[in-house]
Structures are given as C-alpha cells and as structure tokens.
Amino acid sequence: MTSFPAQARRVCDRTLAPQRRLYALRECTLHCAPYGFRATWHHLVVSAAIPRRLTDDLDALGRAADELQRARDVVLPRAEEYAARRRREKATGRRTPPNPPPWSSWGWSRIAYCPDPERHPTAPLATVVRAVLERWAAGVDAATHCLACGTERRRPGRACPACGVHPDGPAARWSAPSAPERWHRIWRRELDLDAAPHG
Ligand SMILES: [Zn+2]
Questions:
Q1: How far is the CA of 153 from the centre of ligand 1 (A)?
Q2: Is residue 133 part of a domain?
Q3: How many whole angstroms from 163 Cα to the centroid of ligand 1?
Q4: Angle ∠(165,171,177) on CA atoms, nearest 5
Q5: Residue list, CB under 5 A from ion ligand 1
Q6: Spacing, Cα 104 to ligand 1 middle (Å)
C-alpha cells in the first residue's frame, strides 16, 4: 500500500495519463475519506468539478487532491495526539477515555461518515472536519447533536437530517436506495449537478 503523500503527488503529476491520475486520487480518497469513500468521492467530483472527460479540465484532479490534503492536515495531527495521550494514560492505568473521539473504532479517516453517497455536507472538507473536532473538544455529545453541523438529534441512530452525517459511522447499517446504480453514475461523473440533493 502506498502512502497518501505519494499518491497525491501522482494526482498532480501532469506527465501521467489522466486516467492514472484519477486512480491515484481514488487511492488518496481510500486513505482519507471524511464522509466515507463514496460520499467523499461524490463531494470531490462536485466541489472540484471533475469533468466526465478528464482532459476537459486537467487541473480538477489536483484541486480535489488539495482539498483532501487540507482535511487530512486538520485531522491527522489531532488523531496522532489523541493516540499518544491514550498510550500515556494506559501506561498510568487509566483505561476509560472520558470523551472518546468522534472516529471511535472506525479510524479518523471517516470522521464524518455519511451512508448516502449523495447526501453529505457541502462546505469544504477541512471546514467540516474542523467543526467535528471542535464540537468534540467542547464536549458536545454526538448522541444528542450532530458534531458536523450542530443540529439537534431527535431520532437516535439516524443520519443527521440537515447534513447526512451518521453518528454511528460505518457501523450504521443503512444503505441508500438504488446505491449500486447511483454509485456507477457518480464514479463516471455523470452528475446532474443542478439536481443533486444536497444537505
Ligand atoms: Zn449534521
């Protein structure tokens, strides 16, 4: 498995064929997918305006990689700091984290998991993950309020009605209606962007 930085460099390498750069972006997104892979991919296609024919805008892939990089720069240092703190606490016999992090067992890279690939926050990824971390640091309870947007949760165990983030992360056993067909369309960047249902 190659690293995020190496793949991000390939995304921006204009000497490579566009399709290879697209696959490098896919690798980057597998490493760092704040909404989960599919919803993050959908977000990037929309936010970076990745065209169906990649040669129509060869800068789009680089814009998408930059957005992922900025989100990763926000989360990764905090995740590493948390892991180091937990190691110190365990060494001193303190085993229960008083405020477990918003990524829990599924890893920091899916910090604001959205089960529906077309329903996720629309702000830049770095802005959303920063908001999640700040609400968590302020002691907001993910069971009562969405860490991504602050909306009060009236129905536990459901994705946020305002932004699509699910408090249970990838453990949320919910899949979007007609997900395979929709995913095929998203992957091929066949999006009717004006009609995209955004939260
Ligand atoms: Zn929300």
A1: 9
A2: yes
A3: 4
A4: 65
A5: 146, 148-149, 151, 160, 162-163, 165
A6: 18
Helix (H, G, I), strand (E, B) or coil at 90: helix
Q: Does a structural domain hold residue 175?
A: yes
What phi, psi does 89 have (nearest 5°)?
-65, -40
Paired tokens of 193:
């962007």
pLDDT in tens, the chain (199 residues): 579 999 999 999 999 999 999 999 999 999 999 999 999 999 999 999 999 999 999 999 999 999 999 999 999 999 999 889 888 988 888 776 667 788 877 788 899 999 999 999 999 999 999 999 999 999 998 889 999 999 998 887 899 999 999 988 888 877 677 778 888 999 999 986 554 444 3
CA of 165 to the centre of ligand 1 (A): 6
Q: What spacing in Å lies between the alpha carbon of 141 and ligand 1's midpoint?
A: 13
Range of the domain at 144: 4-193
Q: Has residue 19 been placed in a domain? A: yes
CB 83 within 8 A of CB 163: no
